[in-house]
Amino acid sequence: MADTWREQLLPASFRGETFLIEDTSVPVGRKVQLHEYPKRDEAYAEQMGKVARVHKVKAYIIGDDCFQRRDKLLKALETEGEGTLVHPWLGQLLVVPGACEMAHSRREGGMVTFDLTFYPGNAQTNPSVRANTARMAGQTSASYWSAALGRYKSAMAAVDTARINLIGLQNTVTGAFGVITGQFSPLGSAIGSARSLAQMLTNSPGALSSLFSGYFSDLGQPSAKSSSVAASSGTGSSSGASTGGTSGGATSGSDVDTSASASVTSATSTTSAGASMFNSYTDAVGIVSRQAEDAASIDTVMAGSGADTTAAAQALANLVQDAVLVQATATIAQMPVLPPAAKDESTASLQQQVVEPVARAEVPVADEVVAVRDALDSVFWQAALKADATYYPVINEARQQVVRHLTAVAASGVQLVSVTPLQTVPALVMAYRRFGDATREGEIVQRNKINHPGFVPAAPLQVARE
Questions:
Q1: Which of 1, 41, 129, 249 has the highest Cβ tally under 10 A?
Q2: What pLDDT shows up at residue 223?
Q3: What is the pLDDT of residue 221?
Q4: What's the N-to-C CA distance of the chain in angstroms?
Q5: How far apart are CA 434 and CA 452, in angstroms?
Q6: For 226-237, what is each residue's pLDDT tens digit?
Q7: Would the pTM count as exceeding 0.85?
Q8: Strand, helix or coil for residue 60
Q9: Which residues contact 246 (CB under 8 A, 6 or more apart)?
Q10: Is 121 in contact with 93 (CB distance < 8 Å)?
Q11: Distance (Å, rounded) from C-alpha 101 to C-alpha 82?
Q12: How many alpha carbons fall within 13 Å on the CB side of residue 250?
């Protein structure tokens, strides 16, 4: 005996509520707008994207409990939001129910008929707010430097300069002067020597703070390029150093005031003239690493030659350390957080790359960024341990902003993985096999310190994951 039409219906469900389906329809293909012009034989068909798959479903609820099941399905259809439609031919679909039609018939007792409409359920996500960690770090550097100057002036106000042992102070500030020369070459040229620095600290401590204030005159302003100052002065042999102050340093109390006032203008002009925008992650990470090492090297000074001598030397060490950390913060603020990179659909052949190399934006190496973040965090924490209740919140805020931004930069970068070639191969071949880009051979050679790019040994190598 042939099955009745009811027995031939297929089961389906929406949000877990079951019903039977007789037939369905859904438009497919692409939307096309036909443009026809007067007095022209040719027409132009403009493609407008895919057709929205709006599902039309003829559904039935049959049985003695049809009214109870009907009410449950009505509740599911009237609930706001997306739901899962289990389609007998198309499987599970994420859809949004639209206007539907329900029908009852006396002649068809025990059955409720539905004409259902379901729209695509790929709902767009709401816009999300993301903090600009780079700008926050840049703004923090300005407030941090202002608080550092205040701490230095308060510490020097409590020092009796008449009781300072100049020879002992000169020996104690040698390390701080070395950091000034390396990290702030214009100021090192303006001061001249460790002896001149000791005399300036004794006879005119305000002139020293003015020197640094002139150097950081643009700090925190929108047009400031403080990070580039760090890049130009990180090695002590930059263009900023060559255009720095020419004063030979102070040799007496009166000479200190004259040279300091002239050096303030010189250092300020150097900061503006030597500025340049962010160059590369590799350079920035290297600069910040050296700054973290220098800041850690002058964390404390050895006691000796009297309490006032030690207090003055410690005040100078704190000021220089803060200046280095401020400069590192400004450098970090210039490091952008990259958006997720789109993957290439295909890889160009080696012959094509010879003619037209693959253009790739520089991406930070997450491991390197995390390492410099942890190093800076440690130095900031050491400096915070010396701070009083007034200064501690400021330096701790700077530390948190630096860590937050470097964490975001690292998250946008690539990680390193260990790869061991099966045999000795040229770096060009390994780069093409690994990345589909033969021009990245220099990256493999430099990162693993390979002697000759034509012979990459069959040993564990550190390469980017992507």
A1: 249
A2: 37
A3: 46
A4: 64
A5: 19
A6: 333 333 333 333
A7: no
A8: strand
A9: 189, 266
A10: yes
A11: 19
A12: 28
The encoded tokens of residue 101 equal: 């039609």
Look up tokens 């919140």; give the residue.
393
- Give the residue from 82, 86, 111, 107 showing the smallest Cα distance to 97: 82
Listed residue (191, 271, 280) closest to 230, CA to CA: 271
User: Cβ contacts of residue 344 below 8 Å, gap of 6+?
Assistant: 436
120 close to 98: Cβ distance less than 8 angstroms:
no
Beta strands in 304-431 (DSSP E): 416-419
**CA-based angle 300:305:308, to the nearest 5?**
70
Residue 460, C-beta contacts closer than 8 angstroms, at least 6 positions apart:
418, 419, 420
pLDDT band for position 342 (50/70/90)? low
Average of pLDDT values for 309-335? 90
344-351 contacts, C-beta under 8 A, 24 or more apart: 344/436, 347/436, 347/437, 348/436, 350/432, 350/438
Distance CA 255, CA 245 (A): 15
When pLDDT is averaged across residues 142-159 and rounded to a whole number, the result is: 89
Residue 326 has pLDDT above 70, yes or no: yes
Copy the structure tokens of residue 145: 């430097």
Ordered DSSP codes for 344-373: PSS---HHHHHHSPPP-----BHHHHHHHH
The whole-chain average pLDDT of the chain stands at 78
H helices present in 220-349, as ranges: 226-233, 239-242, 253-273, 281-297, 307-333
The position carrying tokens 């210039």 is: 334
Q: How high is the pLDDT of residue 450?
A: 78
Q: Is the pLDDT of residue 291 over 70?
A: yes
Q: What is the mean pLDDT of residues 297-324?
A: 86
Give the Cα separation of 444 and 459 in Å (integer). Answer: 13
For the chain, which domains are there? 10-120 (2.40.30.200), 133-335 (no CATH), 415-464 (3.10.350)
Helix (H, G, I), strand (E, B) or coil at 12: strand
3-state SS, residue 82: coil
Residue 255 has pLDDT above 60, yes or no: no
Count CB neighbours of 390 within 10 A. Answer: 11
| CB contact at 8 A, 156 and 312 | yes
